[in-house]
Design a protein that fits this description.
By secondary structure, this protein is α/β, with parallel strands linked by helices. The chain folds into three domains: 117 residues, 3-Layer(aba) Sandwich (Rossmann fold); 52 residues; 124 residues, Up-down Bundle (Zinc Finger, Delta Prime, domain 3), CATH 1.20.272.10. 57% of the residues lie in helices and 9% in strands. Helix 6 crosses helix 8 and helix 14 packs antiparallel against helix 15. The longest helix has 23 residues. It is globular and about 60 Å long. It starts with a strand and ends with a helix.
């Protein structure tokens, strides 16, 4: 059986994914890479050594986004053959964190021959209600203006939003917008974007120094990795658009980020190849997975995280 889950909200996507995966079945995870996809498909279509079924998870499969779709790609033939195979040995799960084009024939084939889940983004009103619910449950004192400002600032990801809200419990007074501006988010944005700058410009010493500074300032590691991964994902998306000869204005409209951040990322497009960016995403995914399965072993996890961060450069 083939499954396809699409959502631009990673929290909702992972929540749906966790319900779907059979915990008693072996799981093999891959980050989508067009150059290696044929080998993944061959592996996914064959039995394991002991004849047991496996869950094959293919993440970041954004080929069905119209800007990423390549009309004459050999992937189309591979996917068509896979989708028409009614006797698959394993459960194959594709996930996408970008919009899906319903005009593509391949999208229609996925919808016809797989269990297809397209999860709508949480709109502003629902997001606001979600935050208000957490604020009430955690007995936080935060003004509506501060909530709206926070939602403009941090990644539009429910898990990250919840983590950042919980950090506000340390304040003894009502949290206002100026509290966030002066104490939290401006500093975080600059430092974490510095982290990304040092990554893309291949400066490991400055990268690690900034990482330790953020840790000393009690910046949540989940938030740090989330923001870093978001920027890496954005620059990968922009690289693909650039290769498809998308204009500056079309690219800005497509990625939907503020013009200043877009300008900064655009100026760095030629500093890394897609192959390198894919490697970064794999490492960041490994860190995210480690954080979710560390079982509160802080010292051991920190050693492993530092080791994985070093793999970004080598």
């Amino acid at each position: 059986m083939i499954h396809f889950i699409a959502s631009q909200d990673n929290f909702l996507l992972n929540k749906h994914l966790s319900k779907m995966i059979n915990k008693e079945t072996d799981l093999e995870e891959y980050i989508f890479n067009a150059d290696q996809f044929d080998a993944v498909i061959i592996n996914a279509s064959t039995k394991s050594m002991f004849g047991e079924k496996r869950n094959i998870l293919i993440k970041d499969f954004n080929f069905l986004n119209e800007k990423n779709y390549i009309k004459d790609s050999p992937l189309i033939g591979l996917l068509t053959k896979l989708l028409n195979n009614q006797q698959l040995e394993n459960e194959i799960i594709f996930t996408s964190n970008q919009s899906i084009s319903s005009r593509l024939k391949l999208t229609k084939l996925f919808k016809e021959n797989s269990k297809f889940y397209e999860i709508e983004n949480v709109n502003k009103n629902k997001l606001l209600e979600y935050v208000k619910t957490i604020v009430k449950e955690q007995q936080l004192e935060i003004s509506l203006e501060a909530i709206e400002y926070m939602l403009l600032y941090i990644p539009n990801d429910l898990l990250t939003i919840e983590n950042e809200l919980l950090k506000l419990k340390s304040f003894n007074s009502v949290v206002e917008r100026n509290t966030l501006e002066n104490n939290l988010f401006k500093k975080l944005e600059g430092n974490i974007f510095d982290l990304f700058n040092f990554l893309i410009s291949n400066r490991p010493e400055q990268f690690m120094s900034t990482y330790y500074t953020l840790k000393e300032n009690n910046v949540d590691i989940h938030f740090m990795i989330s923001v870093l991964a978001k920027n890496v994902t954005l620059i990968k998306h922009m690289k693909v658009l650039q290769q498809n000869h998308t204009s500056y204005s079309e690219m800005l409209n497509c990625v939907k980020i503020n013009p200043y951040q877009f300008k900064m990322l655009f100026s760095q497009l030629n500093q890394a190849e897609v192959k390198t960016i894919n490697r970064w995403l794999v490492v960041l995914y490994e860190i995210d997975k480690l954080l979710k399965t560390s079982n509160n072993d802080i010292i051991s996890s920190e050693v492993k995280i530092v080791f994985l961060l070093s793999k970004l450069f080598f």
